[in-house]
Amino acid sequence: MGTFAARVGVSDVNGDEPLWVEADVDTGATYSVLPDKVLRDEVGVRPSVCRTFTLADGSRIRLPIGVAQLRLEGEALPNRVVFGYGNQFLLGATTLQVFGLIADTTDHRLIPALRLTI
């Protein structure tokens, strides 16, 4: 599977002016992940809970989660985000679902999900 980046705006849930970043689209990640420092210091998002995650190498790590407003493809919607370490910018599967988007890894873009399941 190919990887690609998407431009995403990040703000607190009040919808303040977003910080625009490039995030890798990672459909293998459940949640979107942004650096702790960016979420806390630059955007003003605060964690509300901590969860234990299993990383790709099988190790486990406990990280905080909060709610940020993300902007993608002309829409702004609240999303759970993980306060990551280092310089990780990932768009995960739940964010894509919230926005009704799927990853087109052939053309390296996000496209609308056309299937409606009720």
What's this entry about, in short?
The chain is mainly beta and 118 residues long. The chain has 2 helices and 9 strands, in the order E-E-E-H-E-E-E-E-H-E-E. Strands 1, 2, 3, 4, 5, 6 and 7 form a 7-stranded mixed sheet that branches.
Structural account:
- The chain has 118 residues and is mainly beta.
- The chain has a single domain (5-112), classed as Cathepsin D, subunit A, domain 1.
- The chain has two helices and nine strands, in the order βββαββββαββ.
- The protein has helices spanning 36-43, 93-99, and strands at 5-11, 19-25, 32-35, 47-54, 60-72, 75-84, 90-91, 101-104, 109-112.
- Strands 1, 2, 3, 4, 5, 6 and 7 form a seven-stranded mixed beta sheet that branches. The chain has a two-stranded antiparallel sheet with strand order 8-9.
- A hairpin with a 5-residue loop joins strand 4 and strand 5.
- It is globular, with a radius of gyration of 14 Å.
- The mean pLDDT is 92.
Order of helices and strands: EEEHEEEEHEE
Strand count, sense and barrel status of the largest sheet are: 7 strands, mixed
CATH H-level superfamily title: Acid Proteases
End-to-end separation in angstroms reads 28 Å
Number of domains: 1
Helix content: 10-25%
- CATH top level is Mainly Beta
The CATH topology annotation reads as Cathepsin D, subunit A, domain 1
Shape estimate: globular
The appropriate CATH architecture is: Beta Barrel
The computed structural class is mainly beta
Rg is 14 Å
Strand content: over 45%
- What is the overall pLDDT average? 92
Task: Give me the count of strands.
Answer: 9
Low-confidence stretches: none
